From TrEMBL:
This is non-specific serine/threonine protein kinase. Its main location: membrane. Residues 32-95 form the Wall-associated receptor kinase galacturonan-binding domain. It is a single-pass membrane protein. Residues 166-233 form the Wall-associated receptor kinase C-terminal domain. The lineage of its organism: Eukaryota, Viridiplantae, Streptophyta, Embryophyta, Tracheophyta. GO terms for cellular component: membrane. Transmembrane segments: none annotated. PANTHER family: KINASE-LIKE PROTEIN, OS01G0690200 PROTEIN.
């Protein structure tokens, strides 16, 4: 039948577009306009990615994850609960997730905040937990604790200020603690659970310039710099240029062939929406010689044909 040809043409094009599915800058312009929302952590944009924000909306090491309404971030292989994000002052408040169920079974990996991206916030200093030690330290540490855990039950465990390796002990873990919390002689469990603040050094001035030019900030991994996605789908390293009045943007799409694309993949200015077909929204961006939109809409979906 005559009506099958346009349908096949359309289906082929949809398949092709799905095959070459890689996020265009235009998608990223709208995708990176989303903010990360998860539990108490709300309205987070650049320099963070994750959640409903593509990873390319933020720095590769600032990717948030939302699980069970709790935000987390993994830095140098250690997973942290995100307790607060303060982009204005470039501070992230995090706590090691392995300490959330107590201090006896951590991942034996130091908290590592590698420069130039990260630095420890003011008022924090290094602290080390030692596990499975033959003796108490000299001078004696106030932070002694016991763990009912195979291998270390009858050994000594303690916390000590500074960053140190295990020495004679079986394991050690270095992480930042708040000096004021230490001064209050808070319990070690409390010190570990409270978490710490870390500063992240990302070029926010570049993002402000981008946003002022009606662009949306993202991150260009190939150049290690802030990227600026513009409404017209271009990726620029600085600012978006103002749209030229009466330019090609306002012109109707060229006639000649028809391409259908899932609406979230291909948004061309001036495109006509064909509405919802098989519960996916399609946009007509070009006109196929063999097909008119009415052909398509009057053709039943292939799977419903007898
Ligand atoms: C992503 O978007 C969906 C639908 O709008 C929303 O329900 C969900 O909470 C969002 N998730 C995050 C992490 O922002
Ligand atoms: C943004 O892109 C990411 C990765 O492609 C995707 O998981 C997410 O659902 C997108 N967000 C929206 C709102 O479409
Ligand atoms: C904390 O220890 C690390 C090494 O584990 C070191 O590079 C860093 O400078 C120390 N930070 C402070 C504030 O002492
Ligand atoms: C230590 O753990 C073992 C098994 O995990 C348990 O039988 C024992 O009662 C625990 N001891 C203490 C003092 O909690
Ligand atoms: C942890 O940090 C201490 C002090 O910088 C270092 O001596 C030790 O080797 C580190 N441990 C691991 C597992 O990297
Ligand atoms: C980007 O940073 C990574 C890690 O810091 C580095 O390995 C890479 O060479 C950098 N790329 C450029 C183009 O600067």
């Amino acid at each position: 039948m005559n009506t099958h040809l346009p349908l096949l043409c359309a289906m082929f094009l949809v398949m092709m577009i799905n095959l070459i599915r890689s996020q265009s800058n235009e998608d990223l312009y709208s995708n990176c306009s989303n903010l990360f929302n998860c539990g108490n952590i709300r309205g987070i944009g650049f320099p963070f990615g994750g959640g409903n924000r593509s990873s390319r909306c933020g720095h590769p090491e600032l990717q948030l994850v939302c699980e069970d309404n709790a935000a987390s971030i993994t830095i140098s292989d250690v997973k942290y609960k995100v307790l607060g994000v303060y982009p204005d002052i470039k501070v992230l408040r995090i706590a090691r997730e392995d300490f959330s169920s107590g201090i006896c079974s951590p991942l034996f990996l130091n908290t590592t905040l590698d420069p130039p991206l990260f630095s420890m916030a003011n008022g924090y200093s290094n602290y080390t937990f030692f596990y499975g030690c033959p003796n108490w330290p000299t001078p004696s540490a106030p932070g002694q604790f016991s763990c009912n855990k195979s291998g270390i039950t009858d050994k000594k465990n303690y916390g000590f200020p500074g960053a140190m390796g295990p020495g004679n002990c079986l394991e050690s873990v270095v992480f930042p603690v708040s000096q004021s919390l230490l001064a209050q002689s808070a319990s070690l469990e409390n010190i570990a659970r409270q978490g710490f603040e870390v500063r992240f050094g990302v070029d926010s001035a570049a993002c402000a310039r981008c946003a002022n030019s009606k662009g949306v900030c993202g991150y260009d991994n190939s150049k290690n710099t802030t990227a600026c996605y513009c409404p017209d789908g271009s990726l620029v390293s600085a600012t978006c240029s103002p749209p030229a009045a009466g330019g090609p943007q306002g012109q109707p799409p060229p006639k000649g062939y028809l391409a259908l694309a899932k609406d979230d993949l291909y948004r061309s200015s001036g495109a006509l929406s064909l509405g919802t077909v098989n519960s996916l929204e399609y946009t007509m961006s070009h006109i196929c010689p063999t097909v008119s939109p009415t052909d398509l809409l009057s053709s039943p979906p292939a799977k419903d044909q007898p």
